[in-house]
Amino acid sequence: CESCQQPLPGDCPVVYAERAGYSRQWHPGCFVCCRCTEPLVDLIYFWKSGAAWCGRHYCESLRPRCAGCDEIIFSDDYQQVEGLAWHHKHFACLECETLLTGKPFTLANTSLLCSTC
């Protein structure tokens, strides 16, 4: 098994990942996302940099995810602060929903607050 390095008995089901090449094999429970360890046996997987990725983490490796709505940001126009990203419409105060672009704000645990709130 590529993951646990334990033998794969002949009567044991194995996972072949076409994109990894048929020389690689995994126990079904060992074929997991390289970022979150979500089992990938029954899911669509992505192969990147020599590893299997779940859809969520593969997309995050290509584009940022909005801290406000948890969706992938496809536009090149977004707000980024301290490693987090927001669609412009979600870069707003958690309490009063005032848009914060160009205004003073506080960031606390991914929550944005305007100077009033």
- CATH class of the domain at 15-54 equals Mainly Beta
Instruction: State the share of residues found in helices, binned by percent.
Output: under 10%
Cα end-to-end separation = 54 Å
CATH fold-level topology of the domain at 15-54: Cysteine Rich Protein
Structure, described:
The chain is built from one helix and six strands; from the N terminus they run E-E-H-E-E-E-E. The protein has a two-stranded antiparallel ribbon with strand order 1-2. It has a two-stranded antiparallel ribbon with strand order 3-4. It has 117 residues and is mainly β. The model has no long low-confidence stretch (mean pLDDT 93). A hairpin with a 2-residue loop joins strand 1 and strand 2. The protein has a domain of 40 residues: Cysteine Rich Protein (Ribbon). The chain is elongated, with a radius of gyration of 20 Å. It starts with 45 loop residues before the first strand and ends with a strand.
Question: What's the quick description here?
Answer:
Residues 1-64, 65-117 form the LIM zinc-binding domain. Helix content is 7%, strand content 17%.
